[in-house]
Design goal:
mainly beta; 3-stranded antiparallel β-sheet; about 10% helix; about 35% strand; globular
Length: about 110
């Protein structure tokens, strides 16, 4: 589960973590459906690409202290996110998840 401690909201209840190089490179490629409540955490990540993706996503970038250092709303297929140099990991989410959880830069998150 991923929660926003600052806003006391749930960001995602079904979480997968991509830890190794292969998992991080694959990300959500090949995924047909990404439903509300799901998330993919990509470790060691300061930016993402959307090459060959089939749907847009929201992304939260967090530093090593789990503080939100960047948010990207509705990144479309075949686009790139900005680079967030202070980020340690990214949380990929279905579109609308950031707005629903009211997550903003500076918020504290918890990944369980």
């Amino acid at each position: 589960m991923i929660t926003n401690l600052t806003r006391n909201t749930v960001i995602a209840s079904q979480v997968q973590i991509a830890r190794n190089y292969r998992q991080r490179m694959k990300g959500l490629l090949g995924v047909e459906e990404f439903s509300s409540g799901q998330a993919l955490v990509i470790t060691d990540c300061q930016s993402i690409h959307m090459f060959f993706m089939k749907f847009p996503i929201d992304v939260i970038f967090c530093d090593s202290q789990n503080k939100v250092v960047g948010v990207c709303l509705e990144i479309k297929p075949f686009h790139l996110s900005p680079i967030f140099f202070r980020a340690s990991y990214a949380i990929e989410l279905p579109v609308g998840s950031i707005a629903a959880s009211k997550t903003q830069i500076g918020d504290q998150v918890e990944v369980l």
